[in-house]
Specification:
By secondary structure, the protein is α+β, with helices and mostly antiparallel strands. It contains six helices and 14 strands. The protein has two domains: about 5-160, S-adenosyl-l-methionine hydroxide adenosyltransferase, N-terminal (Rossmann fold); about 170-270, Beta Barrel (Elongation Factor Tu (Ef-tu), domain 3).
Length: about 280
């Protein structure tokens, strides 16, 4: 049986107009030419660690075990923040200690966690502004060649790692589920922090088509199964591929349609039944 080719994924906010992504790949291939490189995206909003955390959570599990996931959204590059190597469920994660790993480690189920300090695996000299090239890329390449992560640096605890204070949906005194827009994708779809499991706990036995979703002064009745459940140009609510509630406009940009932004409040109201209770 052929040995599986090691996989390294890259997730950055670098864009493609500059040489940064290409140089990182060059460093990796110079150390291990037999690796398979996969670009998750390089179009994250600049410095948006929350978006990086969301994309990482929604993608890493689709890769084979022993994949190495490199996340470089690093507004604190060159400062005092740590560089992390985390192992979870057979996957390796390399990221700055700025919250990018928050959703990967939030349940505490981590196999190993280290601060990367062993400069033997860095390029020399190390730039103060491009750790993607000088630290993340070479460390990922060495891991892909079988380096034991214990050689990277001291083991640390979860309490030593920066985590994002992401808003959680909550039940309001008016019996509505209140959430926030966490992210907006390239299509302009508004991705919220309300997942399907939370909604089902909030209203067990309710039909999705009966809920009312409010965004500002706008109302959407029901949660549909697809964007084309409504006419072109009409608003629609769906649970997207991340299993999070999305507000979209069929074949249009919901951000522009609703004049919405990240952090805006969204409420989900269940229909009132006899006796005045919502459920």
């Amino acid at each position: 049986m052929n040995k599986r080719v090691p996989v390294i994924t890259l997730l950055t906010d670098f864009g493609l107009q500059d040489e940064y992504v290409g140089v990182m790949k060059g460093v990796i291939l110079s150390i291990n030419s037999g690796v398979q490189l996969v670009d998750i995206t390089h179009a994250l909003t600049r410095h948006d660690v929350v978006q990086a955390a969301l994309v990482l959570k929604s993608t890493y599990s689709y890769f084979p075990t022993n994949a190495i996931h490199v996340i470089v959204v690093d507004p604190g590059v060159g400062g005092k923040r740590k560089v992390l190597c985390c192992k979870r469920g057979g996957h390796f994660f390399l990221a700055p200690d700025n919250g990018a790993l928050s959703l990967v480690i939030q349940d505490g189920n981590v196999d190993e966690l280290r601060a990367i300090t062993n400069e033997a695996y860095f390029l020399k000299p190390v730039s103060h502004t491009f750790h993607g090239r000088d630290i993340f890329a070479p460390v990922a390449a060495h891991l892909s060649r079988g380096l034991d992560m214990s050689r990277l640096g001291q083991e640390i605890g979860l309490s030593d790692v920066v985590t994002l204070d992401l808003p959680a949906p909550f039940l309001s005194p008016r019996d509505a589920l209140v959430g926030k827009i966490l992210s907006i994708d390239a299509f302009g779809n508004l991705i919220t922090n309300i997942d399907q499991e939370t909604l089902m706990r909030f209203g067990p036995g309710q039909r999705l088509e009966d809920v009312v979703i409010m965004l500002g002064r706008s109302k959407i009745r029901g949660i549909s199964t697809s964007y084309d459940s409504v006419k072109t140009g009409s608003p629609v609510a769906v649970f997207g591929s991340r299993k999070l509630l999305e507000i979209a406009v069929n074949q249009m940009d919901a951000r522009a349609y609703f004049k919405a932004g990240v952090g805006q409040t969204i409420t989900v109201k269940l229909p009132t039944v006899k006796g005045g209770a919502s459920r």
